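FAQ: What does a ligand-bound record look like?

Like this one, built around adenosine-5'-triphosphate:
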Amino acid sequence: MTSHIIETDGLTRTFRVREGMKRRTVVAVDDLSLRVEPGEAVGYIGANGAGKSTTIKMLCGILVPTAGEVRTCGLRPVAERRRLAREIGVVFGQRSQLWWDLPTRESFSLLAAIHRLSPTDAAARREELVERLELGEFLTTPVRQLSLGQRMRAEVAAALLHRPRLVVLDEPTIGLDVLSKQRLREFLVTERRDHGTTLLLTTHDMGDVERLCDRVVLVDRGRTVHDGSLAALSRTVGAQRVMTVDLASPTPTLPLPDGTTHLGEEGHGLRHRIAFDPDRVTAAAVLAAVSASAEVLDLSIEEPDVEDVVRRVYRSRR
Ligand SMILES: Nc1ncnc2c1ncn2[C@@H]1O[C@H](COP(=O)(O)OP(=O)(O)OP(=O)(O)O)[C@@H](O)[C@H]1O
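The answer part, i.e. the structure of the complex:
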């Protein structure tokens, strides 16, 4: 049996759709071969309609593939869906899995019974989740009365109660305010660190990818167009980092090394913005060159804007 948490080979799903009088075949997922190791955190990203939800549904056993192979936690998702349910936790940002009229605490009790957790194990895990997701103040409130941020935290706790090895999150931070997003991300980082949980998430929020994922799979029209780090994705479109330096005295011109572009200066040379290609020159080398001709008081470095990177990848393929 495979040691991969997710393993697909040539996974494909098509749909027949009606267009006026005609019928047409839409290829939602096209020949996807993906391997995810235990403990990885993978951001599965792409434009609307790229095929992300269809992939997730096949991984969870909700949808039957048209062609290809898929194993999730070593299991055949459709044929072994009940066994798989013990291994994975699924969070859909736009659909609730909680019992709407019940207090959150009772939803947890029901889920503990469904997963056949021992009372001590269930209590310990619930306590851990209540503390880490700060659920204490609304455990007795019916789910329907929770704010979106509270409900999402409860959803995540519900999906993770049985300590799944794989957590699949479909748009987990959609509609959340900045603070709620931050809390949820911090929780997922901790959960992964402490329990070795594998994360697969789809998102349109690049902050999720930056904070949570060490690997990014970018899909376009059902096909994988990038599989690697976020930094490597930025490099594919030649995205640059930008250094801003504040100097002690006005210095109109700076000698800069190869691989840099001087973007401009302000205050008669008190502040300079310098773009550099991280593949060709390090931030330290740029700083050393600036320091050779001026005293540097402060500096900041901007990473490439991920949304811009994704837009550029898409544009280059059209
Ligand atoms: N049940 C269905 N019947 C017909 N076409 C479908 C069905 N489900 C998905 N599709 C089509 O398959 C393609 C991929 O859809 P999918 O929902 O997987 O994309 P997505 O990447 O999850 O998009 P989004 O970011 O909008 O959620 C789209 O063209 C969509 O219209």
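Follow-up question: can I read anything off the structure? Yes, for example: The pocket of adenosine-5'-triphosphate is lined by residues 15, 17, 26, 28, 46, 48-54 (CB under 6 Å).
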